[in-house]
Design a protein that fits this description.
Order of helices and strands of chain A: HHHHHHHHH
Structural class of chain A: mainly alpha
Low-confidence stretches of chain A: none
Number of helices of chain A: 9
Shape of chain A: elongated
Oligomer: homodimer
Number of strands of chain A: 0
Mean pLDDT of chain A: 97
Largest interface: A-B, 45 and 45 residues
Helix content of chain A: over 70%
DNA sequence: AGAATCAAAGCACGACCGTTCGGAAAAATT
DNA sequence: AATTTTTCCGAACGGTCGTGCTTTGATTCT
């Protein structure tokens, strides 16, 4: 890996951690330069605008999500086990890898009403993610685990909603039972999505 | 109402609308002064620090929430009708009164990992709100509408989670079906909370 | 009406913001 | 080893940030 790529990676990693705590808009070039031990202008040269930096950090987060949450989950059996694995890998990822919580959740709420290219960029990532949840549910339907009349988009909506609730309970409220609560709610969602026995 | 109170009200209203769109941290004294047509220092004099301004805006939002969401809902019948009314008044409030979405949701995710008095202040408001949801469910239990073994805290968790999901779908994703999706999910939550017939 | 209080403005401050530019050092390529 | 390209720094820019201070004008109270 070339020198440039290497330091850029370092910068993005530091930026992502910072953003998970204090937000992407609060990310400042000067502060970030201090953290990675280089000059403002030296750091700036890698991105050429703050907006580009923000978008690259979001891309970096999305790649990270795929690597640490999605890929590991796909190795599990199709259907329900895979869905449960997503919850588990996401818990681990968002709580272990960052000082703050899941950076994608933070970004989603930060840019939900802030027009611009960053928002547009982020929206695409979110749609991709929600589509993956929907597909995971569809697989469970195809496997005969979930009811064949299940609305998989509705499933994705509820599935993601519960993640957001967990994020708030564990981060803002610092509720120690958050993870347990989340898992119970997901179990309930899965249970009522199951194929009716006959 | 004295002159001071009056302009302060004007400022808070403008600040809240601004924050619902761009966030509470992006709120700047100068920009806000421009919006309400007064000088920076004149506006500053009402709050004496930016932090105090932020907290007063959050208090203002919480009061607003109580007035436009909670109070109207309480006039409905105890139990399920009241719970459904909360969803309806909240929909109306968060979509009609602000340029951005619900300011309390925005604040919650903005301060979830940003330590300080603003965060502490906000946390109290959120706990109060969640407690109200829990109590609303408890009333439905007492009225015999919900199952007597229902975990009302779990109900509040899911109820609030769905609100967060709705917020994201309607704001970031601009999904036109968001409200419908939300209502369906709430119906499902209520349905499975109901007392088992025997 | 006069006195006391308050609201608002103007101005200035130091700090930090994103960004530009030119040059030096380091790395990659030939 | 020479040359080109990349990486990084230092200094400086125009702006905006939050926050004081002082003064003037409006409002409120006696």
């Amino acid at each position: 890996m070339s020198k440039g790529k290497e330091t850029r990676e370092t910068i993005l990693r530091a930026a992502l951690d910072f953003a998970s705590k204090l937000g992407f808009e609060s990310l400042s070039i000067g502060e970030l330069a201090k953290r990675v031990g280089m000059s403002k202008s030296g750091l700036f040269g890698h991105f050429n605008s703050k907006e580009k930096l923000q978008m690259m950090v979001i891309d970096y987060a999305a790649d990270n999500f795929t690597e640490h949450v999605f890929i590991p989950a796909i190795s599990k059996d199709r259907g329900i086990p895979r869905i449960l694995a997503i919850v588990e890998t996401w818990h681990r990822w968002s709580s272990r890898y960052f000082t703050g919580g899941c950076p994608l959740v933070a970004a989603a709420f930060e840019y939900d009403d802030r027009p611009g290219p960053v928002r547009d960029h982020l929206t695409e990532h979110q749609k991709t993610m929600l589509n993956s949840f929907q597909k995971a549910a569809q697989i469970a339907v195809d496997e005969g685990q979930f009811d064949r009349n299940l609305d998989c988009d509705a499933f994705a909506f509820e599935f993601y909603s519960l993640m957001l609730g967990y994020h708030l309970y564990s981060r803002l409220l610092q509720d120690d039972d958050a993870k347990f609560r989340h898992l119970e709610a997901v179990d309930s969602l899965i249970e009522r999505s199951k194929a009716k026995e006959q």
